Amino acid sequence: MGNLLLDWLVSALSLVIVAHLIPGFEVKGLAAIVIAPVVIGLVNATVGFLLKVLTLPLTLLTFGLFLLVINALMLELAAFLVPGFAVQGFFAAFFGAILLSLVSMLLRFLLKT
Question: How do the domains of the chain map onto residue ranges?
Answer without folding.
Answer: 2-111
